[in-house]
Specification:
Elements (H helix, E strand, L loop, with lengths): L5 E12 L2 E13 L4 E5 L6 H8 L7 E6 L2 E2 L5 H11 E4 L11 H7 L8 H14 L15 H14 L4 E5 L7 H18 L2 E5 L3 H6 L2 E6 L2 E6 L5
Parallel strand pairs: 3-8, 3-9, 6-7, 7-8
Antiparallel strand pairs: 1-2, 1-4, 4-5, 9-10
Bound molecules: adenosine-5'-triphosphate (ATP) and magnesium ion.
Length: about 230
């Protein structure tokens, strides 16, 4: 079997809470295979976003160890982590994090500026990804002129355009109607199946969860991999 893209051991993560600490993640064992569409499911507060932040090298490894693609994340410098986030990871955040001053086109193009692409290739990638999410008419609009669902789709286009090894998406269909949500999940599934991209998303949406090839269930911060057909 291929080496998993993420391997976690004895992972714990705490948030400061006054003078105490709140344990948000307590995960003895975690393996995430490469090239699959993987859902993080679990009740509100179970640690989905926290785990995505660890997988995205956004929060530090406080306790335990996690390997990503051969790197021991806890041992990397901030500079090395920034490089991995920039080159290998694409993010779709819950609150989109678009630049208000930039158009949809520029928001997507901005994240390609560090890649060695010709301007024609860059233009092609930006257009293709905005078209894939159905925003070809909105390329010149700024976030304030876009609906919530359209902003979410710009955020998705931005992650796709980068063609990263891993896409990390927090509630990617939350602002979308079912039909648009389905189209987005279709894109994610085909990125996994055709390009070998690992797509990890957190969701409460049964439609989105049904697309996943694997599910990781979080209960009180503990993540368990559930293979299809094993769900209860
Ligand atoms: N920045 C923070 N500071 C303090 N506590 C936090 C912070 N972020 C999350 N928590 C707490 O950590 C736990 C896990 O939160 P997390 O956001 O990971 O849950 P979630 O599964 O993503 O929930 P939801 O489905 O509502 O998005 C919760 O108890 C939450 O209150
Ligand atoms: Mg969350």
């Amino acid at each position: 079997m291929e080496t998993p893209i993420y391997q976690g051991r004895s992972l714990k993560f705490f948030y400061p809470m006054g003078s105490k600490k709140l344990k948000a993640l307590d995960c003895p064992y975690l393996e995430i295979p490469k090239g699959k569409l993987i859902a993080l499911a679990g009740p509100s507060g179970s640690g989905k976003s926290t785990l995505l932040n660890l997988l995205g090298l956004i929060e530090p490894i406080q306790e335990g160890a996690m390997h990503f693609d051969g790197y021991n994340i806890g041992k990397l410098s901030e500079k090395e982590k920034t490089q991995i986030r920039r080159d290998d990871l694409g993010f779709v955040f819950q609150d989109f994090l678009l630049f208000d001053a930039l158009t949809a086109y520029e928001n997507v193009a901005y994240f390609l500026k560090n890649l060695t692409l010709s301007s024609a290739e860059r233009h092609q990638r930006v257009c293709a990804s905005l078209e894939a999410v159905g925003l070809e008419e909105q390329v010149q609009k700024r976030p304030l002129e876009l609906s919530g669902g359209q902003k979410q789709r710009v955020a998705i286009a931005r992650a796709i355009a980068k063609q990263p090894k891993v896409i990390i998406a927090d509630e990617p269909t939350a602002s979308l109607d079912q039909e648009t949500g389905r189209k987005i999940m279709d894109i994610f599934l085909s990125l996994a199946q055709k390009n070998g991209t690992t797509v990890i998303f957190a969701s409460h949406d049964p439609m989105a969860l049904a697309f996943a090839q694997l599910q990781i269930k979080l209960i009180d911060g503990n993540a368990q991999l559930v293979h299809r057909g094993e769900e209860h």
